[in-house]
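tmp note - Centrosomal protein 76
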Amino acid sequence: MSLPPEKASELKQLIHQQLSKMDVHGRIREILAETIREELAPDQQQLSTEDLIKALKRRGIIDDVMKELNFVTDNVDQELPSSPKQPVCFTDRQSTLLKKTNIDPTRRYLYLQVLGGKAFLEHLQEPEPLPGQACSTFTLCLHFRNQRFRSKPVPCACEPDFHDGFLLEVHRENLGDGTRMADSTTMLSISDPIHMVLIKTDIFAETTLVASYFLEWRSVLGSENGVTSLTVELMGVGTESKVSVGILNIKLEMYPPLNQTLSQEVVNTQLALERQKTAEKERLFLVYAKQWWREYLQIRPSHNSRLVKIFAQDENGINRPVCSYVKPLRAGRLLDTPRQAARFVNVLGYERAPVIGGGGKQEQWCTLLAFLCRNKGDCEDHANLLCSLLLGYGLEAFVCVGTKAKGVPHAWVMTCGTDGTVTFWDSLTGHRYLHKPINPDEPPAAEQPKPLYPYRTIGCVFNHQTFLGNCQPSDSVESCVFDLNDESKWKPMSEEAVKSVCAPGATTSLPPFPPLCASTIDASVTSNEIEMQLRLLVSEHRKDLGLTTVWEDQLSYLLSPALASYEFERTTSISAGNEEFQDAIRRAVPDGHTFKGFPIHFVYRNARRAFATCLRSPFCEEIICCRGDQVRLAVRVRVFTYPESACAVWIMFACECAS
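out:
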């Protein structure tokens, strides 16, 4: 394999740096002097190359070098822009935390190391976990320029033992031209921050968002040798966004090293100009939004009570335009259809933002990375993600803000078809509803469509480009007409104004959208584990009641098609395969015996928690605690995996006994 001269020189530089790091030259000189002193006969004038190589092999120097410097040709773990040649890789055996580092000499990298944490005072009194003991853990999640990384979990402590390295690809100038890399000036114009999210996972696998931080990495461009160390103070989220939760020690290093660094003054000036430009855009949008709101209230004073949401607070307590929470998002090959996307969003957990004390709901719209890493969020988080995915599939989708029964604020998604049909998508349940407006001018005797959806009022709709306030006489959903081009019914905001602060790259304060990650859960293994745990729990429960337990494996297997059919129906709204399941059960259950089955669905994988929930159902308890002659029990678990390690868990308990 021949390399271009530029790549060959890059490769030589990498090897030279690694050899220098190991001090191989010094060790060779020592062995050479020792060999000459001990082994060179008086009549010999010089030592041959073969003699020296033998001496190096004997002392293990060559083995050490080959262990340290491994050229790997397997596929890298992270997808990078396609390249006809495999990237050069070497392994640093001395680092127990980063086993394999993928290096392509044609690309510019930023190596970010997290070198421990301190002052996590909430965990000051936490005892050190014993070996093998379950404990709460911290996990650090990163997103930078369409790349995502996750640290190894470390036990929660006042000084958590983070020691991880992340190799972030920064930029390669003119993709396809491998001979040119971006210089310092070009990289200074890349304003994307490194988004860091800290997640706490307790012993029951429940996740909590601890902190969300945007790291400005470009200070490294003005540092000597392209290396700098930072102390990052992480602040809490929501109501605790002004309270420090801990400190991370971070080291940044450019790779390959920069030929020419910028002065710190130039870097600071660039960052100050960007902040100034962003602040001015946000100020102008705020002035426009205030004017728009005044005009909206002049249409009808009662509009003041409608849920017209122009700004929303993120997890850091920062007010951002709602349109910035939505962006067309493509799921690659992870999700195939809009309905499958709706099912994925539905199986992500629902949790309202935590609030200390009373006083109603705490508002918190999470950035997408924080929502995905925590794997749960409020109805607004679900609606924003579903709307983004539907926009990615080419649909005309909007987030709707309004209320459900009893005036509870709610958010859902609406799509408008080319034929005028309006469909509501509930992002929490996955249900879809066709909207047919009621005509209030019709006589009372006239038949009106009966709405099936749970929504009562609607104040506004928005997506990444459009914001519309409902200015119809009534904000009732059932009588609402969704002709969004009719300005007498929907008051629009200027699209230019929305784009000035919400378009990608419009302001440096906009968090970039991360890509979705494939599931890391093995569906078969997880299904078997939960099933075995449930069998044990059922047997123990029946033993406490003085009952024996006999499992019927064949009957358990026959329950699988039903679980697959239930998930298929949830995804597509089409029922299939029920006839075959019923026929198989009729054949399996002997004459004179009764069959009972109870299916139930969860979005978590905690078997004990699921079992406790099942026992609260009288019908399920009747099956599990079944008494009688020739009682045979069956249980089947089927885990369906989705991106971001979200999953739908279907469980079916069944029994057969003599009538």
